[in-house]
Amino acid sequence: MPKYILAYHGGGMPEGEEAQAAAMAAWGKFYEDMGPAIADGGAPVGLSKTVTAAGVEDSGGANPLSGYTLVTADTIEAACEMAKGCPILKDGGTVEVAQAIEM
After folding, report:
1. Tens digits of per-residue pLDDT, 46-68?
2. Which residues contact 23 (CB under 8 A, 6 or more apart)?
3. Which CATH number fits domain 3-100: 3.30.360.10, 3.30.750.24, 3.30.70.1060, 3.40.50.150?
């Protein structure tokens, strides 16, 4: 079955213990809802740098990555349906979905 990368962009860190607990619960439910489709739970990411032919920039590019998950799905449309449940969307972030091509 094909694998798809859910690449998270934007969002924010919740402030306060209650907001953090609510965010963790939302992410937990998101992963629970995807169940066995999760091939790699991924992780949030830290500072990113952009490497170009001219050198290395600290900017992280036009739309820096904030995390990722790898899922299995029959089609990219099915993977997009999974991504619609991502809590980052409620925080103003986005999810980019791309097929991981087997080599």
Report:
1. 888 888 899 998 877 777 889 99
2. 14, 87
3. 3.30.70.1060
